[in-house]
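Repro case for the chain-ordering regression, as requested:
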Amino acid sequence: MKVRLGYVAMSTVVQNASPSKTMTATSFAKLADRDAAIRKLERIAADNLHNTVRLLRHNIAHDIRLYRFSSKLIPLFGHPLLEDWDPIAELVPNFAEIGEIVRAHGMRVGFHPDHFTVLSTPREDVLRTSVADLERHVRMLDAMGLGEAAKCNIHIGGTYGDKEAAGQRFVRQFLAMSDAVRRRITLENDDKTFNASETLAICEQVGVPMVLDIHHDQVNPSGETVEELWPRILRTWTDFSVVDGADGMDGAGGLPPKIHASSPKEGNNVRSHADYIEPEGFVEFLRSVAGMTPSLDVMIEAKMKDGALFQLMDDLRQRSDVTRVDQATFTYEAREATP
DNA sequence: ACCTGTCAAGTCTGG
DNA sequence: CCAGACTTGACAGGT
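-- result from build under test --
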């Protein structure tokens, strides 16, 4: 099984390269010259996009071909104070530069809109802002010139005391969105509400791929093991995704499956992310799916970001079942330990 | 240069 | 019904 590792948004290795610089709504509102304030926002956005380019170059230099963009690339985009402001046209060259690098190197990229984007909500206003948020993310991917292999990953959302009703509401509200948005979505199992089998059932119902978060599955188990669920999860990728220009992976039959890996932080709060990845639990997962999975993409969700990715590769180097391909890719073959 | 408190968002819980 | 917790990176304002 070929395994590629990636990380989220910012680097702990490259300094002063934040792709998420912002301005608070409060301080924006205090500025007397609104035009100047908007120019400042656009300047910050251009800096964030430039830092994204720097991070992509860093990724290429270290063979990292999996990356999640910051959802805060454009500060206050979509905020009620800035309803008349649409900065994307202005920034198309900046977005296009990012897309060119992604395509030239066969990188797999995407977004993960914040938890405030929730399609299971019973509130009309929350649904409206959630759909608008997804549309903004899709417009940014379009501005990059990336095809539908570049996805926006979200959760099902809250349960509001009735998970069954919330799930049905999610399905109805999801299907009411445009095709263009729906084809850009993946769904992830949650650490509190919709577990892996519940999320999978909804993925199958609405026809989108499922991102399995193995830490969330441990914190919020579904009663079915990963081995039991994995064949169906794989099928969501072969049936509901297409390989296009934004993807450099081999083989037909859709995108390779993507998972999220993190380790719980020491202490009371089992849900928060540790600085690094514990290799034992991670390899245990690889072993359980290796026989069914030719290639797998893994987003490392750890406080130390790419630093945790490099540490994990170092930890794996000694193992007899791991063969290092490059700095962020290896092959895993389940084999019996020699006696 | 560094430290502390504040900011954003939606949901959920406790009172 | 309302205040606070949750989460996270970064701002904002102080020294």
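Ordering looks correct now. DSSP finds eleven helices and ten strands in chain A.
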